C-alpha cells in the first residue's frame, strides 16, 4: 500500500479483539503480527502518525422518532423530531463552549448506552462504527469536537480523545 513503508500489497489493520495492529496481505490472505520483511519502519511510523488506525472518542447522541432504534436507557419511546433533536443538541454544544465538560453533558443527555461512561466508546478502528460517524471521528484531531453528525442512530456530537 502506497506510503505505508510496507512491501507490495501488504496493508496494516487494527484488530479490535486483540486491541493491536496487524499486517494483512490481500493477495495471499496472510495475516501477521509483525511488519513483513522489507518494511520501512520509519516510513510506517510517519504514516501511522498521519493516518491513525484507531481513535478513541466520546459522543453525545440525541435520538429522534426516525432513529434506527427510537428508544434508549432514558426513554423507552422517543418521539421528538429530527429538527427538535438538532435544536436540543445545539443547546449542549453551547454549554460545551461555555465550559461544561463533555463527559458531564453526555451523562446527562446521551441516548447511547455509553452515556454512563461519559459517552466514552473506547478505541475503535475503521469498519467498527457507522460510516458517517467513522468519517467524522477520524477527521478530528485529538481533543477536537465535531459539529453535529447524523447517523442512522440519530444526531451526535463527537470528541476525539486519542
Ligand atoms: C457503538 N456502541 N458502543 C456502546 C458502548 C460502548 C462502551 C460502553 C457502553 C456502550 C454503545 C454503542 C451503541 O451502538 N449504542 C446505541 C446508540 C449508538 N449508535 C451509534 C452509532 C455510532 C457510534 C456510536 C453509537 N451509539 C444504543 O445504545 O442504542
From TrEMBL:
One of its GO terms (cellular component) is nucleus. SMART domains: WW. Keywords: Isomerase, Rotamase. The keyword Transcription does not apply. It is an enzyme of class 5 (isomerase). Residues 52-162 form the PpiC domain. CDD domains: WW. GO terms for biological process: positive regulation of transcription initiation by RNA polymerase II. InterPro entries: PPIase_dom_sf, PPIase_Pin1, PPIase_PpiC, PPIase_PpiC_CS, WW_dom, WW_dom_sf. GO terms for molecular function: peptidyl-prolyl cis-trans isomerase activity. It catalyses: [protein]-peptidylproline (omega=180) = [protein]-peptidylproline (omega=0). Residues 4-38 form the WW domain. The keyword Coiled coil does not apply. It holds the Pfam family Rotamase. Its EC number is 5.2.1.8. PANTHER family: PEPTIDYL-PROLYL CIS-TRANS ISOMERASE, PEPTIDYL-PROLYL CIS-TRANS ISOMERASE-RELATED. This is Peptidyl-prolyl cis-trans isomerase. It comes from Kluyveromyces dobzhanskii CBS 2104.
Amino acid at each position: 500500500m502506497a506510503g505505508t513503508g510496507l512491501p507490495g500489497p501488504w496493508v496494516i489493520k487494527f484488530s479490535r479483539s486483540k486491541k493491536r495492529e496487524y499486517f494483512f496481505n490481500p493477495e495471499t490472505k496472510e495475516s501477521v503480527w509483525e511488519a513483513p520483511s522489507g518494511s520501512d519502519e520509519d516510513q510506517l511510523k510517519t504514516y501511522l502518525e498521519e493516518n491513525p488506525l484507531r481513535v478513541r472518542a466520546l459522543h453525545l447522541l440525541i435520538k429522534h422518532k426516525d432513529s434506527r432504534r427510537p428508544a434508549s436507557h432514558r426513554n423507552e419511546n422517543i418521539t421528538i423530531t429530527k429538527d427538535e433533536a438538532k435544536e436540543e443538541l445545539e443547546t449542549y454544544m453551547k454549554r460545551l463552549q461555555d465550559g461544561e465538560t463533555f463527559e458531564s453533558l453526555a451523562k446527562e443527555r446521551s441516548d447511547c448506552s455509553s452515556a454512563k461512561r461519559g459517552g466514552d466508546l473506547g478505541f475503535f478502528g475503521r469498519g467498527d462504527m457507522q460510516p458517517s460517524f467513522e468519517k467524522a471521528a477520524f477527521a478530528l484531531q485529538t481533543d477536537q469536537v465535531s459539529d453535529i453528525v447524523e447517523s442512522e442512530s440519530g444526531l451526535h456530537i463527537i470528541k476525539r480523545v486519542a
